[in-house]
Amino acid sequence: MLKIWSMKQQQQQAENAEGAAGKKKKKVTAAQLRVQRDLQELTLGETMKMSFPNPDDILNFTLTIEPDEGMYKGGVFNFSFTVNQNFPHDPPKVKCTQKIYHPNIDLEGNVCLNILREDWKPVLNLNAVIVGMQFLFLEPNASDPLNKEAADDLRLNRDAFKRNVRTSMAGGSVRNVSFERVLR
Amino acid sequence: MATSVAVPLNEKGRWNHLYKVLSKPGPFSDEDWVPGEETINALESSKILGAGGLGCEILKNLALSGFKDIHVIDMGIADTIDISNLNRQFLFRQADIGKPKAEVAAAFVEKRVKGVKITPYVGKIQDKDEDYYMQFKIVICGLDSIEARRWINSTLIGMVDLENPESLKPLVDGGTEGRPPHSNYLNIQKLIVYTGFKGQARVILPTLSSCIECQLDMHAPRPAVPLCTIATIPRQPQHCIEWAHQIAWQEKRKDDTFDSDDMEHISWVYNTALERAQQFHIHGVTFQMTQGVVKNIIPAIASTNAVIAASTTSEVLKIATSCNPYLENYMMYAGEEGVYTYTFEAEKKADCPVCGNLARNMDVDPNMTLGDFIDSLGEKAEAQLKKPSMRTEEKTLYQRFPPQLEEHTRPNLVLKLSELLENGQEIAVSDPAYTIDFRFRLHFR
């Protein structure tokens, strides 16, 4: 067997650390630690709030966005965030919990944001995701649609799209699909 | 083909070459190394754990390297031998189809190599606790997911106990991957032609050398197709499968949790994908492709597996016997065009959340409030944390931001440590002033 143990002792002497003792208890996981750090480094601003159904579980939370400009101004949008133990290797799972009219969010609440899927990298953090989410409401993107009808409306007739957004946010129907009222 | 096994004529002669290496020092062997009987005994008595579906190569190599006590833990619960395995998984014969892999492989090797004992365990690596892993000398793994690698890595690092030399278990990790060197957006369309021509072998000495978590950034995440492509403009059969798997499943079968090992679930996805493919006039959706896409299977290449298995098992042999220097600490292999390998020493990451900050012991007064404890962290020379947030595995003790969480955890500040924690419990502390996080094990005094 290698002399790794004497290597370990040398390293330990060099660091002059004291010996570990005590029974093993559950350790804070790498994912938890990373989320703790990410949360601390968030910049939420006036338009965003977070809530934690179980404050001891920081891997599951809700983000509320209230855009203060753009076509979605006046709405209150809720997203559930689910972070798994493989974070930050895996991106957080984000879903809109309301049925809304948006080119990049489908009626099931799936969100098409590059950094949530194909462009996710472990160096990105929750703040990047949250900024990206906010951007979706300021600049809905018609070229990468998840709700094709909404994207067509946005591309072909911006004014009609704006009216549809207002109607849907007030709880009305657009193209026979009824939407949830999300106004403040 | 018959299941008969040829037994070599001279069973003793089989080990001659191995004993040559172990009985005299070579140019690279350590100067303190004692070759001969003692080393050979150490080798034969080493209890080795193979974690993950190691396959035939590693098992065969371990047995032929002279290890006598090999344990295998394989998470493939439904892992039975399929006819498509026979071309490369050479321990299986046609008559074995349908039988569990771990057991057939163990029986074959035991029969072929006299004196070796293989103990298969069919289950998840996560089912076993530290006491189980403590019994082994070295862990070799050929795990198929990063999640499982991170788990075994942090478990072995967490086991290191300075009072017990036996608690430091070298981890030898091997893996193959199927991503091209420049995996970009365009390549995603060619997903299916990616095969496992690349691989790596690495040696991890828990807490001493760079660990799997330190090297996490080197694992490229699986190539994902943008959701919008899947939803609106599928071009490839894989896109239709992803659609059925990601979108249609949620819509139609919201209440069922998708299980990639459930045949009915796979069939449903396959049929749904087929329908969608027909709508878009896309050809090529097959059941096998469906399984491949949802389980993210990369076609295995026998030669890559053999190279990686040979590399990892010879590391185990070198570590167990000290006959030669071991790999420090990462060998990458690329076999797409010719053969290329490169070996380098991956560095330990100072801020590695697993090995970079082993818990330090700290004595605390159990009657101290959490608020006072936090203040004291700001004064202590070894910490000097001014704005810390902290938690245990199950409890958020105090989190400064976002405000909603701060409000929730503020009442904890006036509670005594003994009301929040158990004696000896570990807390993890983050502070914006530091790029690394800290772990402390709090002992009540």
UniProtKB/TrEMBL annotation, chain A:
<comment type="similarity">
    <text>Belongs to the ubiquitin-conjugating enzyme family.</text>
</comment>
<feature type="compositionally biased region" description="Low complexity">
    <location>
        <begin position="8"/>
        <end position="20"/>
    </location>
</feature>
<dbReference type="InterPro" id="IPR023313">
    <property type="entry name" value="UBQ-conjugating_AS"/>
</dbReference>
<feature type="domain" description="UBC core">
    <location>
        <begin position="30"/>
        <end position="174"/>
    </location>
</feature>
<keyword id="KW-0547">Nucleotide-binding</keyword>
<dbReference type="InterPro" id="IPR016135">
    <property type="entry name" value="UBQ-conjugating_enzyme/RWD"/>
</dbReference>
<keyword id="KW-0067">ATP-binding</keyword>
<keyword id="KW-0808">Transferase</keyword>
<protein>
    <recommendedName>
        <fullName>NEDD8-conjugating enzyme UBC12</fullName>
        <ecNumber>2.3.2.34</ecNumber>
    </recommendedName>
</protein>
<dbReference type="InterPro" id="IPR050113">
    <property type="entry name" value="Ub_conjugating_enzyme"/>
</dbReference>
<dbReference type="Pfam" id="PF00179">
    <property type="entry name" value="UQ_con"/>
</dbReference>
<comment type="pathway">
    <text>Protein modification; protein neddylation.</text>
</comment>
<feature type="region of interest" description="Disordered">
    <location>
        <begin position="1"/>
        <end position="26"/>
    </location>
</feature>
<keyword id="KW-0833">Ubl conjugation pathway</keyword>
<dbReference type="GO" id="GO:0061654">
    <property type="term" value="F:NEDD8 conjugating enzyme activity"/>
</dbReference>
<feature type="active site" description="Glycyl thioester intermediate">
    <location>
        <position position="112"/>
    </location>
</feature>
<dbReference type="GO" id="GO:0005524">
    <property type="term" value="F:ATP binding"/>
</dbReference>
<dbReference type="InterPro" id="IPR000608">
    <property type="entry name" value="UBC"/>
</dbReference>
Automatic annotation (TrEMBL), chain B:
<dbReference type="Pfam" id="PF00899">
    <property type="entry name" value="ThiF"/>
</dbReference>
<dbReference type="GO" id="GO:0045116">
    <property type="term" value="P:protein neddylation"/>
</dbReference>
<dbReference type="Pfam" id="PF08825">
    <property type="entry name" value="E2_bind"/>
</dbReference>
<dbReference type="GO" id="GO:0019781">
    <property type="term" value="F:NEDD8 activating enzyme activity"/>
</dbReference>
<protein>
    <recommendedName>
        <fullName>NEDD8-activating enzyme E1 catalytic subunit</fullName>
        <ecNumber>6.2.1.64</ecNumber>
    </recommendedName>
</protein>
<dbReference type="InterPro" id="IPR035985">
    <property type="entry name" value="Ubiquitin-activating_enz"/>
</dbReference>
<comment type="similarity">
    <text>Belongs to the ubiquitin-activating E1 family. UBA3 subfamily.</text>
</comment>
<feature type="domain" description="E2 binding">
    <location>
        <begin position="362"/>
        <end position="445"/>
    </location>
</feature>
<dbReference type="InterPro" id="IPR030468">
    <property type="entry name" value="Uba3_N"/>
</dbReference>
<keyword id="KW-0436">Ligase</keyword>
<dbReference type="GO" id="GO:0005634">
    <property type="term" value="C:nucleus"/>
</dbReference>
<keyword id="KW-0067">ATP-binding</keyword>
<keyword id="KW-0547">Nucleotide-binding</keyword>
<dbReference type="InterPro" id="IPR000594">
    <property type="entry name" value="ThiF_NAD_FAD-bd"/>
</dbReference>
<dbReference type="InterPro" id="IPR023318">
    <property type="entry name" value="Ub_act_enz_dom_a_sf"/>
</dbReference>
<dbReference type="GO" id="GO:0005524">
    <property type="term" value="F:ATP binding"/>
</dbReference>
<dbReference type="GO" id="GO:0005737">
    <property type="term" value="C:cytoplasm"/>
</dbReference>
<keyword id="KW-0833">Ubl conjugation pathway</keyword>
<dbReference type="InterPro" id="IPR045886">
    <property type="entry name" value="ThiF/MoeB/HesA"/>
</dbReference>
<dbReference type="InterPro" id="IPR014929">
    <property type="entry name" value="E2-binding"/>
</dbReference>
<comment type="pathway">
    <text>Protein modification; protein neddylation.</text>
</comment>
<comment type="function">
    <text>Catalytic subunit of the dimeric E1 enzyme, which activates NEDD8.</text>
</comment>
